[in-house]
Amino acid sequence: MIFDKKILKSYIVPNSETKGSSPILRNPEDIETLEFKELSDLRTIYDVFWKSVREAPNNDFLGYRPFNEETRKFMPYQFISYKDASIIAENFGAGVVQVKLDRLKRSGATEKEIEETQARNWPVGIYSANRPEWQIIDKGLCTQSLYSVALYDTLGKTAYEYIVNHSSTTMIVCTLDKIPKILLSSSRIPNVKTIICIDPFTESNYVTNNDPTLTIPSPFNIKSVNILKSWAKQLDIDLYDFNEIQEIGKQSRIPHFPPKPENIYTLLYTSGTTGNPKGVISTHENYASAAVSTYLSRGFQMDNDDIFLSYLPLPHAYGRTTENYMIVMKGKIGYYSGNVGRIVEDLHALQPTYFAGVPRLLNRFYDVLTAKTINLPGKEGEICRKAVQEKISNLHKGLGVNHKKWDELIFNKTKAMISPKLRQINTGSAPLEPRVCDFLIVSLICKITEGYAMSETSSTGIMQQGVYISNGDTGIPFHGVEVKLIDIPEMNYLVTDLPLARGEVCMRGKNIFGGYLKDPEKTKEALIGDGWIASGDVAQINLDGTISIIDRKKSIFKMAQGVYISPEKIENVLIKHPLILQAFVTGQSVKEYLVGVIVPDPETFIPWAKKLIQSQTHTNTESYSFETLVKNNLVKNTLLADIESICRETGLNGFEIIKNLYLEHKPFDVETNGILTPTMKLKRFDAIRYYAKIIDQLYNENN
After folding, report:
1. Could you tell me whether strands 307-310 and 238-241 are parallel, antiparallel, or unpaired per DSSP bridges?
2. Rounded CA gap, 686 and 129, in Å?
3. 3-class secondary-structure state, position 572
4. Which of the 8 DSSP states describes residue 18?
5. Is the pTM of this model over 0.90?
6. CATH number of the domain residue 229 falls in
7. 147-198: per-residue pLDDT in tens?
8. What's the domain range around 662?
C-alpha cells in the first residue's frame, strides 16, 4: 500500500496488515487507545439522558408545532424542558412495568413469568412517526431496562406483523390511527395483549408537577374512542392512553431499574433488499459509544444552544444516534410537523443550527435555492452565477466559505431561506453529488460532511471531519472505531491493488451490534471474528488515508460471458450525469449485455429534451409533458449515446455499459412502487420484479 505521509489523515496501526487484509485505520486521536478520553462515564443511554437532566434541567429539550384548528396552520414551536421530559419518562416507564405485571396477575400467570417480567429486559413496540413522545417513550423504557422495537409501515404492508411476532412483542405504544390496524390484525399477532395510545383519549394535557407542558388534544371524538375500547375488550387486549400510563406509573412508585451496558437498548429491523427484515440487536454500550463517538468526531464543537430538526425516522439508526448525540450536547430537538413537504417551513420556524439529512432532501434544497439564484433570468441570474463560481473557487483553494461582498448581497438571504443560524449539515445513506454539495456550502454558508455507517454499527463508522469540501472521499474512522479492507477476489478487488488498496469494508469497536435476532447464519456472515463486521460495501483507501466507498459487494451478478457485474458501480456513474436523477442497471445470466431503467431529472431533462426535438425535427414542443418526452425515441437514443460516451470516459469496461434503456417518468420511491428501502437504497430484486416486462422488452428490442 502507498500513503502520502505529508497529507495523512488517518492513523495507520503499525504492523496490522495481514494476507488478504489491509492495515487497520483509526482516527488520529486514537493512537494509543480506542477508549474515549472524554465522557467515558456514559456507558448506557440511561447515563446519557440522566447526565443531561442533572446538568441542564431547565434547558429546552423537545419541541413541536401545535396545529391551530381555526387558522388551519401550524403554530410556532413549543418546548418541554429536560426536567419535565424526565418526569414524564420515568412515570411512563414505571407505568409500563406496572400494567404488564397487572395483566400477568389477572391472567393467572406463573410465578416464573412474573419473575421474568420483574427482571426486565423485554421488548415494547413503538409504532409512530417522529414526535416528542417517541423520545420520551424511548428514555422511559431505559429507566426500567426495557428495550424498544421500532415498528413502521415502509417495510411493507405486513412487515410490522412479522416484526411483532419475530421479536415476541406483547405491548405496543402507538398513535391513535394505528390502533384499528393492530386490532384488525390481532389474530395474526396473538402475543399482543396491551396497546398504549400516545394520543390522549380526552382533551387533556400532559401534566408534570401539576403544570401543563405538552398540550395535544385528542384527534378522535369520545364516541370513536369508546368504540375502540369496546373492540379491544372483546379481543382481550388492554387499551390505555399515554396519560393513564403516566398516572399508573406515578402511583406505582416503582423505582428506576437502570440498564447495564450489555443490556439490549433497541431492536431495529433493517429493510434489506430482499426477504424478511433482519432484527439488529443493539446494546446500550453500542448506542452510548455511538453518541459519544459522534460528539467527538463532528469536526466542530457544538454546545447546548444548538438546535436540531428531527425528521430522520427514529426507527432507523441514523435518526436515533443523531438525537442521542444532541442529548449528549444538552441541545434542543424540534420535531418536523409530519410532512416532508413542509420541511422548509419547519426549518424556518425552528431555525436550527444543525441538520442531518439524506441526498434526496438536500437535492430539494438545491432545487429551491438554484431557482432563486443561478437559474434566474437576465442580469440577476448572471450576478448570482458569478457569485457562486467565485465562492466555489475560493472554497477549493482553501479560502473558506465566507465572502463579505457576496454574502451581504446574496447568500445571507439564501441561508435565511433554510435557517439563518445553520452551521452544519450531515448527510449519509448515499453519495451527495459534488456540484450540489459545493453549491449548498456556499449558498448556505455552512459545512456539509458526508459519512458512512450501518444499522449494525449504530450509525457510526466513517465520516469527513473538520472540512468544508470533499475530495470524493467518505472520510476517516470515527473515534473508537477501527476500519480495514479485505480482499474480494471474485470482483477483482484486492488490498494489494496499486496505487490504492481496494476491498470490503470491515469495522470494529464498541458500536458494533451483537447479532441478528434468531438468525445465527446471517449473524455469522456479518460478524467475521475478532470483533469485526463485514459490511458488504466496497471501498478504497486513498493516499491521504481517507476512505471512499466505491461499490457494493452483495449486488454482483454474473453475465453469460462469465464476467461479474457490479450494478451499483455503474449506477453511481450514471447518476452523476446532469440529466439523470435515478438509475437501475440489470442483466440476465443468459445475456451478454446490460440494460437499464433511467429516471431523468425533470429540472434539466425537460428543457434539454424539448430543445433537442425542436432542433432535430423543427417540431413545436412547448406543450410536451415530461411523460411525452420520455417516450420519444430521439430523446432516448441521444441520451443512450451520451451515456455510453460518459461511461467510456469514466473507465468502465465495454461489458459494463448499458446497451438499451427505458426512460421512466415516475421516480423510484418507498410508498408508490416500493423499489426503495426507507433509507433510499434500491431494492434490486423488487425492481427486477417490478420492471420484469420492461426488461424483457428491452432485450427483445435489441434482438
Report:
1. unpaired
2. 25
3. helix
4. B
5. no
6. 3.40.50.980
7. 999 998 766 667 889 999 999 999 999 999 999 999 999 999 999 999 999 9
8. 557-701
